[in-house]
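User: Here's a chain of 155 residues. Predict its fold as tokens.
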Amino acid sequence: MHRFLLSALIIFVFVVCATHSVALFKDPEAPQVRALKFEPAKQDFYIEFGGKNMLEEFESQAKVAKALGVKAAKGLADQMDFEKEKLVLVSWNTSGPPEGKLMHELVMKGGEKRIVFFVKAPANVLIRGQRARIGADFFAVPRNATLAFEATERK
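Assistant: Prediction complete.
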């Protein structure tokens, strides 16, 4: 019983330390990327916008409304501030199971900070299913952020 409690305590301390160390080393000047909630009004939204391995930037609610409709634009705009942020639609695909996961990172290139979106393949998997999965996700990023998308899935 004592070993179990001691093990649980050690795991708890490790998790707390690991969580706080990530916050300690986080770059306070790094651009913030926020995933936005989106419920498409059109049933064919993911067929029309998903799986293209690209990103599209929207700098105003009017441009979003032109592409997605007024109701969808309002739902996204309510989650962000177009004066400080821009909306990014990341259209991606993967296969599985197990499937890859959409991720992003901050990269320095030529003295410029760039937010790079990419699909990360599952680790230590030799055989994956051949079911295709298409995705289209929205993010709010700083208005002056430079963006990129890597079309090739990372190992």
